[in-house]
Design brief:
The chain is of the alpha/beta class. Helix content is 32%, strand content 15%. The radius of gyration is 19 Å and the shape is globular.
Length: 226
């Protein structure tokens, strides 16, 4: 007879999250999302994934990737489980999320990979290359914003069937049997990088209360967004 060790623990898959965006600049809303999701989903590692240039935003070239990486590194240097990935910046070209997700799985074999996006990205998802495949290439987390009406009518029936609506809850039940789309309102912090750039364009840093202090000092030192 085989005796089973009662102290033996089931080893779960590592949970790795990537938060894509331009982060131009990173602000307290981004950091609140990262820290809240690490706690809520028990992520082993959470990466900010700054884009070199988002393909679905062709009209506005972002601030130098060097500066955006530096601001993210400064903002997260005290967070043990949060880091910054240079995967897309190192390519030095416009990258499509569907291609990046394939690389992320190769970087983390045997791990469960999550891709985090904001409510605005969810709304615009049909403008992304191979968007239907993006929604099945990893577990997706959509973070809503206060006062932002989120809709599901623009995605396919197949996508809607995989949605796990976590709004108004303080815990997450990890779904098995395939990749899911998690909708969460756990982060009730509303900040806009676009509005911040407008405030910073005239050099009035005192109006940028949504910026981490170290990031505000970096922006002032290198005269960004002028």
């Amino acid at each position: 007879m085989i005796r089973r060790n009662p102290l033996r623990q089931v080893i779960r898959m590592k949970r790795i999250a990537y938060f894509g965006g331009t982060f131009d600049p990173v602000h307290n809303g981004h950091l609140t999302i990262a820290r809240s999701l690490v706690s809520l989903f028990a992520f082993d590692r959470f990466y900010f994934l700054p884009a070199f240039h988002a393909p679905h935003k062709p009209d506005r070239p972002p601030t130098s990737g060097y500066h955006r990486f530096a601001m993210l590194a400064i903002a997260t240097h005290t967070d043990e489980n949060i880091a910054v990935s240079t995967l897309e910046l190192d390519k030095r070209e416009k990258r499509y999320t569907i291609d990046t997700l394939a690389e992320l799985h190769s970087l983390h074999p045997g791990s469960r990979v999550f891709f985090v996006m904001g409510a605005d990205s969810w709304t615009d998802i049909r403008t992304w290359r191979n968007w239907e495949n993006v929604l099945t290439a990893a577990d997706i987390i959509v973070v809503t914003r206060p006062g932002y009406e989120i809709s599901f009518d623009h995605v396919t029936d197949a996508a809607r069937e995989r949605i796990v609506d976590m709004r108004l809850t303080e815990s997450v039940a990890m779904e098995n049997g395939g990749r899911r789309i998690y909708i969460t309102d756990a982060v009730r912090y509303d900040a806009s990088a676009t509005e911040l750039r407008t405030d910073l364009s005239d050099g009035h840093l005192e109006r940028a209360e949504d910026l981490p202090l170290e990031v505000a000092k970096y922006i002032e030192k290198y005269e960004l967004y002028r």
